[in-house]
Design a protein that fits this description.
globular, single chain, alpha/beta, NAD(P)H dehydrogenase (quinone) activity, FAD/NAD(P)-binding domain
Amino acid sequence: MKVVVVGAGYAGTIAANRLAKKVKAAEITVVNPRPDFVERVRLHEQIAGTGAAATPLASMLHDGVATRLDTVDKISDGEVALGDGSRLGYDYLFLAVGSTAAPLAGTVPVGTWEGAERARVALAALPAGRTVTVIGGGLTGIETAAEVAYGRPDLRVRLVAPTIGESLSAGARGRVLTGLQRLDVEVVEDSVTRVDPGAGEAGGDAVRLDSGRHVTSHLTLWAIITGVPDLAARSGLEVDGDGRAVVDAYLRSVSDPRIFVVGDCAAVPGARPACATALPQGAHAADTLARMIEGRKPQPYSMGYTGQGVSLGRRDGLLQVGRRNDSVRRLYFAGRTAAVGKERICRYAKFGARTAIYAWLAGPK
């Protein structure tokens, strides 16, 4: 039995490893465009030079799992067309290509490996006193601004968004703003309309705001994750309005039951882009295929959230307590203890992907 896994992020890696443990006869090939497993939850550290986000993929995959460094152009009936022109056959396929960004012209996206590397190089080249602007008030933007401020205190750092920490409780949002203030991050509650290269002061770019004013920036980072790669759509799979593949209760494509779709590119009701989402989906899909091969009845996918975590540099952080349906409670933890907790969550995510050992809560009833 041939199994192809497209994508080696959290969902794809745990799916490949879990299936390798449960179906010894499976010939598993992971197709990935780079030779590394990337911890997306550490990309802000990669950018700021305070940590590393890449680990050799060979050290993450179980023995017997083959890798193919390439892209997939199209998925068709029982085979995939690779970027080098060759084809790879499959009996079952796991689609786990994650999400992507559509950055504003003149900005560098931080939510992808390639964008993060561009940002890292550009940031390292900035002389003291220059200004870095981060666009996006979600957790990605907060972490990026905080980490840059922590790693490069010689720079001015600005965070621009209509709302900061919208997914958090009111109290947690206030604590995040306090943490940013302690790192001297300037918070501008506004929207960016465009970036004009070289039109700012001292040769910087002019970041135009919805309010009509502009601010000068010498490096502008786009920290908004929107959309997914169009592989599912161009392969003829049914997708929703955001381009995510529509799946059944077992995480199989409604267009082809041989194809499991997991992670950010799957249209799972109530799910949000996160490693806490990708890992349970990848594990459950592998378990489902193993049950099917054994002639056992598959179980519907069910997953509940516990909360959200955000880093505010290396010594501060916040853990927001949530309900299984991902709504937030008033309770949160902050400070050094939360920073340690967030670090342990990140380590557990990587451990789960590598070992295929991962536990999660059942979803809300």
